[in-house]
Specification:
The protein is of the alpha/beta class. The protein contains twelve helices and 14 strands.
Length: 343
């Protein structure tokens, strides 16, 4: 698969400064997939054994699942389980000590930082890829080609009066609009509501919610008058069943693509996604080897499953952060990631 080189564009430059420099600053149930043991390793050393437990974001799940499968090929006696409880649900398990790693489609919240401190749980924050939240519609929808951020807000805000498509724009059908989106434990829900409505968790409640993006795909694919949103990879995987709407963030309509997510023109719905690692868990060689493998393969595997790799330098600095076990977040809790990657 093609690896993206470091390019002189807004997202890469700022993301490298914001993510990579801040990484350096530290230096001075739900669905589940399992990577199961298949036999011993053929080397002179004792084969690596143990368990690695991940949970969290359905958006990050495809990357973590791909890493787990590839890791199983080189460490077949290590059992890796990857759950999908949503970013918030995953942090609850992580803070409770039930998992070694949390997949997160947003940065850790201030409230989660406080709960982790109270529980005596530390974390290393590691960005692994770029994503672009995709606003999707049924393929038989022949009236929407683009939506403005203002229209998305009108649809999704807590006190929305939108009931029919015609309430969004004059001339659109007098048909009930049916909405689909991630559950409230999802980091995608948090990011979308912050970017569109100005406040995390601020959303109208009358939509079909699920932490499983495949459920959302099925709903939208089966309903001509539907509208929903989820991560870019799930759109790519299902583009024969759904179609994407261009989003006008103020500079004209833009559809999410590898290029527009990478260069920051798909705004305000482009974002980095993360894994959070418990540093104490790195005392277990199986966990330590898995995290090392994850960061070395994240660029290639994120591209293969539909996400956008970070600059190579960011992965190198993430590896250095793990090696020195420098803990904490590169962000100030509730600070929106968008402020670090927008032009």
């Amino acid at each position: 698969m093609h690896r993206f080189s470091v390019r002189n564009n807004v997202m890469r430059n700022i993301a490298t400064l914001a993510l990579s420099a801040l990484l350096l600053a530290g230096c001075g149930d739900s669905g589940e997939t399992t990577s199961s043991p298949q036999g011993g390793q053929d080397n002179a050393e004792a084969p690596l054994e143990g368990k690695v437990r991940l949970d969290g974001s359905s958006t990050v799940f495809p990357i973590s699942e791909a890493v787990a499968e590839e890791f199983n090929a080189v460490a077949p006696r290590v059992r890796v389980t990857v759950g999908v409880s949503g970013t918030g649900g995953g942090f609850k398990k992580f803070i409770a000590g039930e998992t070694h790693i949390n997949d997160a489609s947003r940065s850790i919240k201030s409230s989660e930082i406080e709960r982790a401190a109270t529980a005596g749980v530390d974390y290393i924050e590691l960005p692994v890829a770029f994503d672009g939240l995709s606003v999707v519609i049924n393929p038989d929808n022949d009236w929407v080609d683009q939506l403005t951020v203002a229209e998305l807000k009108k649809i999704w805000e807590p006190e929305s009066t939108v009931e029919k498509w015609s309430d969004v724009r004059e001339g659109w059908p007098e048909e009930t609009i049916r909405l689909y989106g991630p559950g409230t434990d999802s980091g995608t829900f948090d990011y979308f509501t912050k970017a569109i409505n100005g406040e995390e968790q601020a959303s109208r409640p009358d939509f079909t919610a699920s932490e499983d993006d495949n459920v959302l795909v099925q709903g939208i694919a089966g309903d001509r008058y539907s509208l929903g949103y989820f991560g870019f990879a799930y759109y790519l995987e299902n583009r024969d069943k759904i179609k994407v709407a261009a989003i006008d963030g103020g500079d004209g309509p833009v559809i999410p693509t590898e290029e527009t997510i990478n260069n920051g023109t798909y705004a305000p719905l482009s974002r980095p996604i993360f894994i959070y690692v418990n540093p104490t868990a790195l005392d277990d060689p199986a966990v330590a080897e898995f995290v090392d493998f994850y960061l070395k393969q994240a660029g290639t595997l994120s591209s293969e499953v539909g996400y956008i790799p970070l600059p190579d330098k960011t992965y190198e600095l993430a590896l250095a952060r793990v090696a020195t076990r420098e803990t904490g977040t590169a962000y100030s809790g509730d600070t929106p990631v968008s402020t670090l990657i927008e032009d």
